[in-house]
Specification:
By secondary structure, this protein is α/β, with parallel strands linked by helices. It has a single domain (2-98, 112-215), classed as Rossmann fold, CATH 3.40.50.10300. 27% of the residues lie in helices and 28% in strands. It contains 5 helices and 12 strands. The strands form 3 sheets. The chain has an 8-stranded mixed beta sheet with strand order 5-4-1-6-9-10-11-12, sandwiched between helices. It has a two-stranded antiparallel ribbon with strand order 2-3. α1 packs across α5 (197-215). The mean pLDDT is 94.
Length: 217
C-alpha cells in the first residue's frame, strides 16, 4: 500500500517576516505516517512547517513545503500512484493577494489585507480520484459538526472523514491526545474516545486497512 499523507499547517507569506497560518502542530499527521509504516505501507508525507523530527522509518519519504500551493503541487505529483490519500493537514483557505517585498511598517490605527482563496487540495484531487483509490479527509469544526463533516465527505469525494471538535477538552491542536468521530458514506459514525494520538493513529490505520480491503478486494 502506498499512502499519500498531508500534515501540519501551511504558512502564507505577508511580507519577509510575517505570515498567515494556524495552530496545527502536525502531531496527528506524523503519528499516522508512523502507524502506516508500522504495518508495512510506504508513505509520502507532505508536511507543512512543524517543530517535529523527520520520521526515521525508511518507509516514509518526507516532502517539506510551506504554502498551500506548494502542498498542492507536491500532493498532486504523488496522488496518481498512491492507493490511499489521507488529508490531515490544516491548509490555509486564503492567502494575501500580494506579498510585500519589504517588512510592512506600522502606520495608522488599522491595516486592511486583501485575501484570495487558495486551491482546495482535497477537493481538487478528489475530482481525479479513481474508483480503486481510497481517500480520507479530516474536518475540524466548531458548529454543526456532523453536518459540515458529511458535506465535506461528499463534496470532496472522501470515503471516510475524521471529525475533530474543539469543544472536547484535550483534543485538537497542540495536544498529545485526541478524540474523533469517523463518518462514512453510509452515514455510519464511529467514535474514538480521548486517547494518545499515537494510539489513535494505529486504530485509524487499522480502520482504513479494513475498509480499503473490503471496498477494493
Amino acid at each position: 500500500m502506498h499512502v499519500l499523507l498531508t500534515a501540519g499547517p501551511t504558512y502564507e507569506p505577508l511580507d519577509p517576516v510575517r505570515f498567515l497560518g494556524n495552530r496545527s502542530t502536525g502531531k496527528m499527521g506524523y503519528a499516522l505516517a508512523e502507524a502506516f509504516a508500522e504495518v508495512g505501507a510506504t508513505v509520502t508525507l507532505v508536511s507543512g512547517p512543524v517543530q517535529l523530527p523527520t520520521p526515521a522509518s525508511a518507509l516514509i519519504q518526507t516532502v517539506r513545503v510551506e504554502t498551500a500551493q506548494q502542498m498542492y503541487e507536491a500532493a498532486a505529483a504523488v496522488a496518481p500512484a498512491a492507493d490511499v490519500w489521507v488529508f490531515a493537514a490544516a491548509v490555509a483557505d486564503y492567502r494575501p493577494a500580494t506579498v510585500a517585498v519589504d517588512k510592512i511598517k506600522k502606520a495608522g490605527e488599522t491595516l486592511t489585507l486583501e485575501l484570495i482563496k487558495n486551491v482546495d487540495i482535497a477537493a481538487t484531487l478528489g475530482e481525479t480520484k479513481r474508483a480503486e483509490q481510497f481517500a480520507v479527509g479530516f474536518a475540524l469544526e466548531t458548529t454543526n459538526e456532523l453536518a459540515h463533516a458529511l458535506d465535506k465527505l461528499h463534496r470532496k469525494n472522501f470515503d471516510l472523514v475524521v471529525l475533530n471538535s474543539l469543544r472536547d477538552t484535550g483534543a485538537g491542536f497542540g495536544h498529545d491526545t485526541n478524540k474523533v468521530s469517523v463518518l462514512d458514506r453510509a452515514g455510519q459514525v464511529l467514535t474514538f474516545e480521548l486517547q494518545a494520538k499515537t494510539q489513535l493513529a494505529r486504530r485509524l490505520v487499522a480502520l482504513v486497512q479494513a475498509r480499503f480491503a473490503t471496498t477494493y478486494a
